[in-house]
Amino acid sequence: MVAVREIAALRSSLTGEIIEPEDPRYDKARSLFYGGIDKRPAAILRVANAQDAARVIQYARETGVELAVRSGGHSPVGSSLSDGGIVLDLHDMRRVEVDVAKRTAWAETGATAVEFATAAGAHGLGVSFGDTGSVGVGGITLGGGVGYLVRKHGLTIDNVIAAEIVTADGAVRRISAEHEPDLFWAIRGGGGNFGVATRLHFRLHQVDPFVGGMLMQPASAQFIHDFIAISAAAPEELTTIANVMPAPPMPFVPAEWHNKLVAMSFVCYAGGGDAAERAIAPLRKLATPIVDMVKLMPYAQIYPPEDDSYHPIGTGRNMLVDAIDKRSADSMIEYLSSSPATFSVAQLRVLRGAVARVPDDATAYAHRRRFAMINIGNLVQSVEELTAIKPWVDSFEKAIQRGPEAAYVNFLMDEGPERVRRAYPAGTYERLMKVKRQYDPTNLFRLNQNIPPST
Ligand SMILES: Cc1cc2nc3c(=O)[nH]c(=O)nc-3n(C[C@H](O)[C@H](O)[C@H](O)COP(=O)(O)OP(=O)(O)OC[C@H]3O[C@@H](n4cnc5c(N)ncnc54)[C@H](O)[C@@H]3O)c2cc1C
To answer: Do residue 347 and residue 367 come from a single domain?
Structure first.
């Protein structure tokens, strides 16, 4: 634990706030999206600006105290909290400034995806973040960002044009393709390894009109196969995220479908009118919808309100694959029908489109030509069960992996350095280690999917 005296010294030099264990806000401030993570930081430092971040970083460097960095708190492994150390928390830095004429926006990284979507959406503009509104702009962007418009507008990082980042030496840097290009390359996919991103500058797209929403249909192996084939052949305006899972016993689902295997898909079309209807019609025709909420709506409404007291205990396995063939689809039905977890889902996202048009060496997210991303997600009742279901997850993964093993860094669990390597092609990983050596030679930023400095 850090001495109270030391924290007091820091307090006098920060514009932002400090939350310590005796503060009534402490427990909420140390909770993450996922439950079952019980870390108790000595202090949570809610920075107000980049200068505050620089002071906290300097303090961590000088004292040797463990430093965690937090934006939206959706790390599935709790890497944005330290047990006994300090947390540099961007919670109070959530301004989004939209320049309508230039179609750009500066966002402080403590903003959430829905806050960004709402601010830019007021002008019909936006960027593709992930499928959940409460995810932090900081964490999702630094890892890549695979969202509802990914096939049309690319990864979130494909729309980052500059960043303000505070590095381990305490310097506040404004970086872009022209200024410190190696660092700018590394933060677009390399995660929080290189510094604290305090602000990100985005290129915006016209996102309205937009047709999207949830489509629930009965799942079968043939259905999964055909849904994926149609999604892959569709114009890239169409992005789908199919969740093959037991139907939730919720009021909007007819009772006879509760807990039966369905595909609960998010179907998103960047545009409107007949073109949207034509692209979505083949999916609707595949099987009579159980629930069909796909409609014309402002893009920002794709993020429904969330219950911030919901903290599930979960684990997942992420993979990038070259195909989802009929045998994969058979395996999905087989494994999901015999899951040992309380709840399991296979989430299928066809990629390519704009993602694959960016050269592999342009950003640190470099598995750009893979066909699709699959997440095997599981919820359980207790932390102990997480270990018990691992053999089932391993076996499921083997059954559906097609092509070389690779993963997306933002969905990695605590899976060891080998799996972090798999998030990057070998050459990309080597280059990331070199940039790490240049900007963070002592690995101050190590509570993340860590890339060690090259030796
Ligand atoms: C329910 C849910 C749905 C998701 N859906 C998607 C999706 O559709 N698409 C997708 O691409 N990803 C998705 N993700 C994954 C998500 O992108 C990552 O978990 C991401 O890291 C979360 O960012 P955060 O800021 O909310 O998390 P945090 O827990 O705050 O941070 C996560 C990691 O990033 C580091 N970090 C955060 N902010 C900064 C910063 N400003 N500077 C430096 N380092 C920082 C932290 O230190 C930590 O290691 C989802 C996650 C969840 C839990």
So the answer is: yes
